[in-house]
Amino acid sequence: MKVGIINAYYYPEIIGGAELSVKKLAEGLVNKGLEVFVITTGENNVVDYIEGVKVYRLKTNNFFRVGKYKNPIKKVTDRLLDIYNPFNFKKINIILRKEKPNIVHTNNLYGISPIVYNAAKINSIKIVHTLRDYYILCPRVNLLNKKNEICNNPCISCQLYRGVNRYLFKNIDALTAPSQFTNRIFNDNDFFKHINSYTIHNAIEIDYKELEETRLYRINKKRDSLRFVYLGALSKHKGIIELINSFSKIENDSVSLEIAGEGNLRGFIQGEAKKDNRIKLHRFLNEKEKKNLLLDSDILVIPSMWYEPFGRVVIEAYKYGLPVIGSNLGGIPEIIDNYSTGVIFNPESEDSLINAFNYFIDNKKLINEIVNNCIKKLHEFDLDIQIEQFVDLYSSLVDSGDHR
């Protein structure tokens, strides 16, 4: 079986969790014996080979590349081309006719647009789409308004935007999302009503020997003090302000808060760290440094104030035996077993987060049990399981023979 995966960006352009998930999927399918190629955007039209995956990078006709909006007119042009980009049709059609995949698996389509579905359909190729964010619901991608708060009342222009996307995405053959929440919010907004949808969690590669070594390290670790850690964007919607405000109210000198990431709140955090020496802000960390920070920490906190579609950092924490304090928004509570692998809190309540901190501070003896639960929970997110689920879905579509 041959699969063509389409995503806006591909390694080494890693914009967020979506790109990591797409890369792991592509390489996992190759390791499973499938033929895989990727279509993505690029500065120029080139073909790369990365870890056995053939990568077509297309210089698209819209102006947008990572963070390069220059003026409002080009921004509007990009938005229109993201909705429907006829210039990309010929390029994609040529690739699909050459490669002849059984399945086209689309993800984020910034810079490419749903025009890919026209090309797939005229070549009688089955289409799977995976929801990685809320792009087709919200032009801002994250369902937040201009105040960076959850938007519950979309304006007329957003409603029109949704209406256009309902039409453009109506011809896919199957839909997947990394959480039940993500599937549900699209369904609640009248998307994909007559399309079979599946929840296939994001996944991680697991070295079980290393995992056992990590477990033993954790349960033998002394916990005279507790180190909480946050990894991610330093932005308002990530709950950074609420995290620091809640932590600052804990009157305990044997706890600390490590924060690692980049974003527009870096200056704010630096100021807070000067007032409270228990707070430490790290510079950008590479993978090795991130691993060391997680191993040196005790509890991960993900205080999101927006609907995280999944929350990959949670399973990264499990990989290093860290319990998780997580917001009850989006897909996060689906992957945390409350008081078993961590604590779920209400981000709208400062006391709720303070209570979550205090649960671990007051119950250090329970942490080893929770660590063991995290290690067991991680097995659900083994990349091999995810690959099997996608292969089964692809096979069922190919075997069905009918096309929309």
Automatic annotation (TrEMBL):
GO function term, MF aspect, one:
glycosyltransferase activity
Classification of source organism: Bacteria, Bacillati, Bacillota, Bacilli, Bacillales
Q: Note the coiled coil stretches, chain numbering.
A: none
What is the recorded name of this protein? Glycosyltransferase family 4 protein
Known Pfam families for this protein? Glyco_transf_4 (PF13439), Glycos_transf_1 (PF00534)
Q: Which CDD domains match?
A: GT4_ExpE7-like (cd03823)
The signal peptide here is none
InterPro entries from the UniProt entry: Glyco_trans_1, Glyco_trans_4-like_N, Glycosyltransferase_grp1
Q: Keyword Transferase: yes or no?
A: yes
**Domain Glycosyltransferase subfamily 4-like N-terminal: residue ranges:** 15-207
Among PANTHER family, the record links this protein to:
SULFOQUINOVOSYL TRANSFERASE SQD2 (PTHR45947), TRANSFERASE (PTHR45947:SF13)
Q: Which UniProt keywords apply?
A: Transferase
Tell me which domain of life the UniProt entry assigns to the organism this sequence originates from. Answer: Bacteria
Q: Where is the Glycosyl transferase family domain?
A: 220-374
